[in-house]
Design brief:
The protein is built from 8 helices and 11 strands.
C-alpha cells in the first residue's frame, strides 16, 4: 500500500510567501528559502510551491530555482506556465512536477506535450471547485471566481486523454479557513480515474489529517494554513506534522 501523503503547499507572489482565505485577502507570511528549509528539517517528504500570479505574468526562473536548490525533497510547481520553454526551464531547474489549474482549460495541449516529453508523472491538474446548496460540485476559475462550463467528470475525462499524472481537488470556500476538509469532489471522481487524487482546502488539525488518511482511494492532502499559523487568526509558526 502506498504511503498517505501530507503535502505542504506554499503560495508565493513578488513579496515572498503569502496566505489568504478562499483565494483572497493574502498576507505576507515569510521567506521561501527559510520556510522550505524548515519544512525539510521537520520531515516533509514533498512540497508544492504555488504561484499566485495571474494571466501572462512572466516567471522569475532564477528566483524560484534557488528555492528548489535548497530542498532535499521533491518539489512541484503549481501555477502559470505559458509555453513548453517555460516547462523545460522549470523541470530542468529541479522541479519534479508541473501542476496547472486554469491553464488546463485554456491550453490543454501544453500539458499534453509536457506529459509526452517528460512522462505523466511530471504533470498534474488542480481542479478548484465549490459545492452548491443542492450538493452539486461546480468547477471554478480561481482567477475570476466564475464557474466553468465543464463538469468535474468531463474535466477528469479530458485529463485522462491528455495523460495527466495526478489530480488535485481544492474547495475554494474552505481554502485557508482551517474548518475541515470537503470530500464532495473526491466522491465524484473516485472509481472513475486511475491516477492519484489529492484533496485540499480546510485542514485545521491532526484529526482532519488522520480522517483523510483512512479514506479509501485518497492519495494525500495538501496543507497550507495549518502548517503556517499557530491557530486561525494568530501568528505565523511554520511547521510540519505527519500522521
Amino acid at each position: 500500500m502506498s504511503q498517505f501523503r501530507v503535502i505542504p503547499e506554499l503560495l508565493f507572489d513578488s513579496s515572498g510567501l503569502v496566505k489568504g482565505r478562499s483565494f483572497g485577502g493574502h498576507e505576507y507570511v515569510g521567506d521561501p528559502l527559510n520556510t522550505i528549509k524548515i519544512l525539510c528539517d521537520f520531515g516533509a517528504s514533498e512540497i508544492i510551491i504555488a504561484n499566485r500570479a495571474v494571466g501572462g505574468s512572466a516567471l522569475d526562473f532564477n528566483r524560484i530555482a534557488s528555492w528548489v536548490s535548497i530542498s532535499n525533497v521533491p518539489v512541484a510547481y503549481s501555477g502559470t506556465v505559458q509555453s513548453m520553454a517555460d516547462a523545460d526551464e522549470l523541470l530542468h531547474s529541479g522541479f519534479e512536477k508541473i501542476v496547472m489549474s486554469r491553464g488546463f482549460f485554456t491550453n490543454p495541449q501544453l500539458l499534453k506535450n509536457i506529459s509526452h516529453v517528460y512522462g505523466a508523472q511530471s504533470t498534474g491538474v488542480n481542479f478548484v471547485y465549490r459545492v452548491e446548496r443542492d450538493g452539486e460540485v461546480v468547477l471554478i476559475d480561481w482567477e475570476t471566481g466564475y464557474p466553468l462550463r465543464q463538469s468535474l467528470l468531463e474535466a477528469v475525462e479530458i485529463a485522462a486523454e491528455i495523460g495527466i499524472g495526478e489530480i488535485y481537488l481544492t474547495n475554494v470556500d474552505r481554502e485557508g479557513l482551517m474548518e475541515g476538509l470537503d470530500y464532495s469532489a473526491f466522491e465524484v471522481v473516485k472509481g472513475v480515474t486511475e491516477v492519484p487524487v489529492v484533496i485540499g482546502g480546510g485542514v485545521g488539525d491532526m484529526t482532519d489529517l488522520k480522517a483523510a488518511s483512512k479514506t479509501v482511494g485518497l492519495s494525500g492532502v495538501t496543507v497550507g494554513s495549518y502548517f503556517t499559523f499557530i491557530r486561525r487568526d494568530e501568528g505565523v509558526l511554520i511547521r510540519y506534522e505527519n500522521i
